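Hi support team,

I submitted a single chain yesterday and got back a structure, but I'm not sure I'm reading the token output correctly. Could someone confirm the output below corresponds to the sequence I sent? I've pasted both exactly as they appear in my results page.

Thanks,
R.
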Amino acid sequence: MLPLLFVTGFSFIVLISEALVKKSEPVSYWLSLIGLAGGIVLAVSGFSVKSDSFSSMLTSGGYGNFFSILFLVSALVTVVLSRDYIRTTHSDFGEFYLLIIFAAIGMMLMASAADLIVLFLGLELMSICLYVLAGFFRKKLKSNESSFKYFVLGAFSTGFLLYGIALIYGASHSTNIARLAAQLPMLATSKLFFAGLGLVLIGLAFKIAAVPFHMWVPDVYEGAPTTITGFMSTGAKAAAFAALIMIFNFPPFHLPNIREGLALLAAASMILGNVVAISQTNIKRMLAYSSVAHAGYMLVGLAAMNQLGRNGIIFYLAAYTMMNLGAFGIVSFLERDSDENLQIESYAGLATRRPVLAALMAVFMLSLSGLPPFGSFFGKYYIFLAAVDSQLTWLAILAVLTSVIGVYYYLRVVVVMYFKEGVAGETPLPSYFSLAAVSLTAMAILYLGIFPSSVLDTIQRLF
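Hi R., thanks for writing in. Yes, this is the structure output for that exact sequence:
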């Protein structure tokens, strides 16, 4: 459990430095980077050691470590990108970095949970930190609105999740995920168990922003600090999917109703997310609705309920984390204190003014659209193939058709950057450190697209 314990210990060090050091922002920033980087190193080194800890409440190694690496990388990139961003917006407070670390610890708990109670604790730790981070710009009305909406609806969804856990416990007398899976043949006829499972699905569907539990997404993504929007859309979504894969990793013939429910959630998310994204003029709202569509694609793999679908979701999450972090990173570079440059039209002529930023943004947009040779192409391919193998051909066809819609609004950003003339003016230049972080995410996307088998071989060893 060293990665989790190490990051938690460093979070306490950052917390104490906040209390004791005047003007502690630089200290908190560097301590946060050291803590997160150290956690990544420990998670990689302990990857092959698989065991249970704390009376089978937590798992270590393999699955938990893979997702911990993903969360810590997401948090590390967010911290790097946030330093310049929060200075520009006059909100440079050290607790910003501390909340990111605490949220990452909650995500790690969710991925390592072997018990529904630990899953709930991790979810709450992550959520409470994100509620605060969403409203971190206290003087901005949109940021306050974002935090309030996220908090109210998040608390409501948590009620569903916790009541679902209570019903599952009532039906099975256990909250341990492995024991629940072992009892599945007996529980398959229990209405109480299915009701609990359905409520848990609703609670987690809110976190992944699946339709019809997506209504908070556009307003929260638009009002939250842009780097935090990127963190929410990647880390929080990956954590919720890590929990969903663990809980719903059942043979499909045991849970036909749950499988149909997942397929309907996937179909609705893909259709609404892609169709509504077309009409958006604000780039953060466009990316918000596209995140709903991407949740739908990943739910296709979950509905397939087979090994290929499970592996496809994990691969897709790795690619999605990199491309969304990069996209929101570019948006944060161009955004100003007065929320300028958030309209898609404001990207006109960016290729002339800042060719490097335009090229990176083009990579992220093309990757989000699912075109080769980027990692998301293979993620979608494995997920759609899993749906066909599981006799959900109609869902795979729908996923392909909605992906074509997605290509349109992503390519629109590329067209605006390269083929429209912009208004002359100064375009902010990011620091070399921030630019390097975004460039590394672009390189990771290309690596996943060119060498997908290397990552898939690792994923197959997780279970």
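A quick pointer for reading it: The CA atoms of residues 349 and 422 lie 4 Å apart. Let us know if anything else looks off.

Best,
Support desk
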